[in-house]
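Quick check before the chapter quiz. The format below is the same one you will see on the exam, so make sure you can read both the input and the output lines.
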Amino acid sequence: MSAAKPPKDSEPQPPELPGGIDPRLLLTFREVARLGSISAAARKLGWTQPALGQQLRRLEREAGTPLVTRHPRGISLTPAGEVLLGHADAIAGRLLVAQAAMRDAIRRRATRLIIATFPSGSSAVVAPAAARLTAADAQLDLRIVEMEPPHAIEALTEGQVDAALVFEHQEDVEDLSGDGHLRWLELGRDELLVAMPADHPLAAAGEERLPASQLTGQTWISGCLWCQANLTEFGEKHGFHAEIHYTSEDQLVVQELVASGLGISLIPQMSWRTYQRPGVAVRHLKEMPYRTISMVVHRHDPRRLLGQLAAEMKLAGHTAGLQSSTGIVES
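Here is the expected output.
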């Protein structure tokens, strides 16, 4: 014998929710109570009358008492139904508030952009890109926070920022790739230069590239911890020990220290093009050390605004002297 077929008017049943009364049935009951008719509520909800009647009886079973009294002209509420209707109205009101809040969040997401960036990237790439974006869209709420690359990637992964401008040194062994859900747009390579006082003996060789081996015995000024580790690694690889006596994450301060004769420094060409302190000279190294500059976003973030930001950062990076890169990388 074949299995009995479900009634023609039966509807798929929603899964049970914890808490006794299913709130979805409560909202269905609210429509019946407001319209005073099961058939009218069924038409509004797009259900058949028998199917809606089944839902109403299910709610009454969960409530443990009749909620409506049926009569030829429709229905009327029992005392228990009157009480339940008040709660149903409150729930419907909260849902309307929730929908409005979600719409507002979507609107803010469409117009708000939070960018994490390292200090030298702020001035050379992010600032001009942000200026062009805000000039094109007066409604754009753009915010910039400074973070070194590892922290910026962490903030992006956790949803605290929408995009991150990061760098990776040629000598880096730390992996910045994140959790596998990031999209990288390489903006270009930023060559690292040796900055020294203008009267330093090594500053007199003009345009000739300086071998790194000639940096032996120098006192060094360096930036962030990540930059210090790169300088140490670069020195060990190319025959000198980097004796770091001064540190600052501010490139202006680094150049001031160099100009004061307190040491030499490995500085990004991007920073040198942005600001050149009188009394400071730079030399290109024969080994051509560099860092790769990239913009990173979530792989599945479809916002057009991020595409516009990428285009503006690419343009700003080119203006800042970044050398050609390999393009887009998925991680």
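If your answer matched, good. The longest helix spans residues 79-111.
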